[in-house]
Amino acid sequence: MELQIADIATLIGEPVRAKILWALLDGRAYTATELALFADASPQNASIHLSKLVKADFLEVATQGRHRYYRFSNQNVAYAIEALANLIPDNKARSKPADEKHGIKYCRTCYDHLAGKVGVLINEALITKGITVQSENNYRVSDSGIEWFFRMGIDVDLLKDERRFFAKPCLDWSERRYHIAGALGAAILQRMLLLDWVRKTKNSRTVLVTTKGKKELYENLGIEV
Fold it and tell me: Could you tell me whether strands 198-200 and 113-115 are parallel, antiparallel, or unpaired per DSSP bridges?
């Protein structure tokens, strides 16, 4: 086991590969050329590193026309990469004021769910209002919570049928508290995007909370963002 951990640490720890993996945390799929730009590497060098990540089953490749797109092979790889950021010393992780209402630390995507201060506030509000209940290393939805999510346009029963973890705590590297991951976390983000409560930004994991989103989050969960 310790040798396998050492191999994984070596694979992730190489600077070019680390930059590639970090770039993919926005949940999108990218070409080798795009990832080479993110990693500040030549296309040839990036291709070598991508081959190693695919061979290790960290990434998978989807072909569309003449293009090959790379993405995480499964969400557990993304969660592991995001979790590593929690090892960064707290004083380095908080180089800007914690109440700054913009930027990647305030609101961002963590693979397919919402993270940052906004993601943490939403998770904590769901628990406080009894919509979700934390039980060991997962969340369950209460009876009243099922109705709450249904009104929001999320069918909890359908999510439970998906072949992935339903809902679990994900330690936020900038807040050092938990946001919600899994099928439920992904559904919340997708619904908020559809309702125009939040908007993604181009070439960034940063997410913007709209004026409508601020109003709805306050009315539905009692949080101010």
Answer: unpaired
Mean of the pLDDT values across residues 195-222? 94
Q: Residue 107: how many CA atoms within 13 Å on its side-chain side?
A: 20
Contacts of 118 (CB under 8 A, 6+ apart): 106, 107, 198, 207, 209, 225
Residue 57 pLDDT grade (very low, low, confident, very high; cuts 50, 70, 90): very high
Angle of helix 32-39 versus helix 43-55 axis, rounded to 10: 110
pLDDT digits (tens, 9 = 90+) for 91-102: 655 555 544 677
The correct CATH number of 2-73 out of 1.10.10.10, 1.10.10.350, 3.40.50.300, 3.40.30.10 is 1.10.10.10
Which phi and psi (to 5°) does residue 65 adopt?
65, -125
